[in-house]
Amino acid sequence: MDTRNLSAPPRSEPRIPRGITHINVRHTTRYTVIGNHLAQHRELSLTAIGLGAHIQSLPAGARVDIKSLAARFPEGETRIANALRELEAHGYLSRTRERLPSGRVVTHTVSYNQPRAAGVREPHTRPAARPRVQHPAVRSQLPLTPVIPRPPAEPAPAPPARPPAPHEPPARARPKPPLPTPQTPSPDGDRAAAHLLAGLHRHDPRLLLPERDVLRLAPAVTAWLERGAAPDAVRRTLTADLPEPLRHPAALLAHRLTELLPPPLPAALPPPPRSPLQNCDGCDRAFRAPEPGHCRDCRHRPQVKGAA
Question: What is the pTM of this model?
């Protein structure tokens, strides 16, 4: 009896139900039918779902303004107002402001147990005009004119059909401007530009460019450096205020290098012409002046009078 029978099936473990278990009792009084489209709405908040179920359970004429609902539930006026706006946006509620004959403005609320199309308002029915009753004395003075029925109006002729518009070719896309190129290309300039472009990913990992884009954009960066832009200024211009998400970094850099290209440096002015050298008539020293004469020291030296 001490030998264990390995062919015997193991004892099954008791199954524990997962999730919720419903115990439903049929309602016969005091119940409201609410659709699952409201109770299980994917976009409404829990406050809006509960408030929508409460409003549908109220009798006609009950007050459902914000202050009345805030006095009934622990939620504040702000959360109740947000929930009412959600129900109105998803077609479970509509609120219209109407002016009474006394001048007072009231809000008329309509609840829908089926969501209606958003933005559709209920037609506003005006009361029928009261018939005007004329005084018997006035009616007796009116001439008796026979009422001649008008002939039925002929239907208006249909407008002539417009000829089909000729097929218009689609508008051509605006061609992209070419990338700037340096005036005097040099291998050293392109090498510095390629080094600048290849290091942009250190400032933003999204700017890690493939080799072909680095070689394509390097002449444009060389044109910036040729126009006096410092490498740090070029780097800040290319990495500042990047959009989110950044889908095409090479296209963005090409756009900035083209549209934000600085102006070229002004041409250097030639130096002004220098006066020729002259020999001073007083001390025989050389000085520059347009005409012969005395140098500056001799002009400011006091003249001695009375030499015999």
Answer: 0.36
Topology, domain 36-111:
Arc Repressor Mutant, subunit A (1.10.10)
Joined tokens for residue 203: 């400032």
Rounded to whole angstroms, the Cα distance separating 48 from 38 reads 9
CA 211 to centroid of chain Cα atoms: 34
Domain boundaries of the chain, sorted by first residue: 36-111, 187-259
Amino acid at 165: A
The residues with which 248 forms a beta bridge, in sequence order, are: none
80-119 tens-digit pLDDT: 999 999 999 999 999 888 888 888 888 889 999 998 754 4
Name the one residue in this structure whose structure tokens are 């680095």.
214
Q: For residues 219 and 190, what is the distance between their CA atoms, to the nearest angstrom?
A: 6
> What would the pLDDT profile of 4-17 be if each residue is shown by its tens digit?
666 666 666 667 77
> What is the distance between the alpha carbons of residues 110 and 93, in angstroms, rounded to a whole number?
6
| Helix 231-239, helix 211-226: angle, nearest 10 | 130
Residue 167 structure tokens = 């097929």
Which tens digit of pLDDT belongs to each residue from 116-161? 754 444 544 444 445 454 555 544 454 555 555 566 656 666 666 6
Distance between CA 100 and CA 106 in Å, rounded?
Answer: 7
Q: What are phi and psi of 100, to 5 degrees?
A: -80, 160
